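Hi again,

Forgot to attach this to my earlier email, sorry! This is the prediction with manganese (II) ion bound. I've pasted everything inline since the attachment limit keeps bouncing my files.
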Amino acid sequence: MTQTKLAKYRSKRDFEKTAEPSGEREVVASEHRRFVIQKHAATRLHYDLRLELDGVFKSWAVTRGPSLDPHVKRLAVEVEDHPLDYGDFEGTIPKGEYGGGTVQLWDRGYWEPEGTQTPEEALASGDFKFILAGQRLTGGWVLVRMKHDRDHGKRTHWLLIKHRDEYAREGDTDRVIAEDRSVASGRTMDAIAAGKGKAPKPFMLAGKAEADAVWHSNKGLAAQERRAASASRQTRALRKKSAATLPEFIPPQLCNLVARPPSDAGWVHEIKFDGYRVELRIHEGAVTLRTRKGLDWSAKFGAIAIEAASLPNSIIDGEIVAHDENGAPNFAALQAALSEQKTDDLVFYAFDLLFDGSGDLRSLPLSERKGSSTNYRIDF
Ligand code: MN
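Structure tokens for the complex follow:
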């Protein structure tokens, strides 16, 4: 049974290339269900929450990490079940492999379900309450499944929310996230990426974990990671500097009606979406959605704002549409969704990246600005 559940996990990975566990090692028995949270610097930094249930880890990628503030909802994307021995993994997944990047054991401990339902029932109902007893996270939490699948069934999206209790910290959204030390080895992300420092103390496996999970750390990957880490520090520094220059709003370019389309080179065809033109601005995780006149409509498009919060600082020009049952944009359906405030199913089509963390991109050719948005894919 456990082996079938792990088929998806295994199919995504080449164990000749990654040092991640394949799920064949026996873990020690535990009276209480265990959990781990792994900080994972993949395409996008995220925190993988894993709860032991029925012989595997149920797993969610929490895009901005957990918050102790009960007002803050964090997107948690359900990912494939992971083997229990994954709970001791700390190291670097090689570039180019699934989830390539550094993994840190950020928290671990025990959990139990809250309420009268079994955890399986609560998960099926989409309202899953649980209590954590970890080194960083404690007290009550809830995972709430979002009503609609935003990417057409590929992934199931949940929101992770702190319950109000003595462990909640109102107004303190991100302090716990700032702690960058492994609970298993004491190492920072940079030390893990460089293959330095102590091996993690095992929690799931009896005895010693592998000395160091950094894969061929002496064959250039560590050096590559160090270069990448220093490059990303530079990018961060750059981003901080340019953050001040990210404008609040850029009036979007509007259409010009002409008698016939231009016939010379240097023009592109674009789809005309029948929706609302919206400018998406992300600044340090704060999202604003503005109409073409600059009105702030962020509250009307709450689900889109939550998901966009994991993107890096940027201003993206796009259009929000509602699809009809054939998948075609339908303006009447969009107006109905807005007036009934049923906006979970709306889709934001990004067609131009105006600013990113490095600054103003508007002087670049449109083809390059469109190309750079492929960096905005998310890999867990
Ligand atoms: Mn991950």
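The chain has eight helices and 14 strands. The mean pLDDT is 85.

That should be everything now.

G.
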